[in-house]
């Protein structure tokens, strides 16, 4: 499936993008480990979150839905999972495989986790190292890539782990393994990353301490089922935010967007570039801040992106680089080597597409320099990466010629109705198979 974007589109109206991917995964995982029935609304029916649903069904958990964003999970308690009959297929989802590995490392049964071509390229050594220190037995394929074989019946012990990279997936993996470990498990991060695991554990009645940058919990407690209202994913909203900012006359309102301070880097960075983003109806829903956003066209200027914003906007750089291409002057991204191990090498994927569209850029090991300019048309590759596909679709709002985006099937991993919502907002998007 490919997208063709015709020039001359706009972004207007009021819309709600689908539910937060990170929270959707965690809702299933924690709901499964709780006692009682957890009901979540706003659940993301994207392929990644559905891979987590399927895995927990394979682990013996009864899950109803998702139906119109509503999902019910019959928790089996911390020690109630059962051995899967087959290998667990995590599809394209790094969050599923890394977080689930933490849970499965503490089970009495063995399991094997695998995924698609993109997932099979992604590094798992980063979770194998701390889990092994806790006493887990995990075997990976070549150079620490999936599939992962996790041996059952290992006794886990709590550790303190200093994360070598800013990764919420690694942090969450260690904390989830800590639920099954003897004693206290704690982590420190080189920079704050999304804290949905910590917040949601507390929502399930599990005590998690955060003090002086150390996040810790005691193993062997219990989780109580709860109700969850999952807000719209700011990472999906980002495509419409940038789309509106770069398009003359645009004016869009995005409803009920998750505004967790560890996720709002995209707004902070765009504001530094001169974007007009109004935040209103701010409220707290189930322990997570939520707001509506009104975004209008603004003249952007190139900036040096502050390194402390990088982990807070880690999934939004593909579309932020489109904003950089539309800005006056030069934008420099550094300290972002983690982008090289996402669903694709996002520095290389974006550099290739930007060059094809006539935007001058220089690739660095830990980032990229983008020179604002005139976007032309052309045919760009996505490298099986949903966010690369959607970012170049948004570039079409400013391109002088049509953009063809090859291989867009993976858009469904995080944003299954992207094409329909973008068309509704005014993007000249056509799907071709
Ligand atoms: C996620 C953490 C981030 C992010 C991913 C979702 C999570 O990955 O890129 O899309 O839900 O914990 P890293 O932990 O690899 O930075």
Give an overview in words.
It is found in: Cytoplasm. Residues 6-419 form the Enolpyruvate transferase domain. Pathway: Metabolic intermediate biosynthesis; chorismate biosynthesis; chorismate from D-erythrose 4-phosphate and phosphoenolpyruvate: step 6/7. One of its GO terms (molecular function) is 3-phosphoshikimate 1-carboxyvinyltransferase activity. Belongs to the EPSP synthase family. By secondary structure, the chain is an alpha/beta fold. The chain has two domains: 2-19 and 231-432, UDP-n-acetylglucosamine1-carboxyvinyl-transferase, Chain; 21-229, UDP-n-acetylglucosamine1-carboxyvinyl-transferase, Chain (Alpha-beta prism), CATH 3.65.10. The chain has twelve helices and 24 strands. It has helices at residues 21-33, 47-58, 94-104, 125-133, 168-179, 196-203, 234-245, 265-272, 317-325, 346-356, 386-395, 418-425; strands spanning 2-5, 12-15, 34-41, 62-67, 70-76, 88-89, 111-114, 138-140, 148-150, 160-162, 184-188, 209-211, 214-218, 223-224, 227-229, 251-258, 276-285, 288-296, 330-333, 361-364, 367-371, 378-380, 403-405, 429-432. The strands form six sheets. Strands 3, 4, 5, 14 and 15 form a five-stranded mixed beta sheet that branches. Strands 22-23-1-24 form a four-stranded mixed beta sheet. The protein has a four-stranded mixed beta sheet with strand order 2-16-18-17. A hairpin with a 7-residue loop joins β8 (138-140) and β9 (148-150). α4 runs parallel beside α5 (168-179). The longest helix has 13 residues, at 21-33. The chain is globular and about 60 Å long. The mean pLDDT is 97. The structure holds shikimate-3-phosphate. The site of shikimate-3-phosphate has 10 residues, from α5.
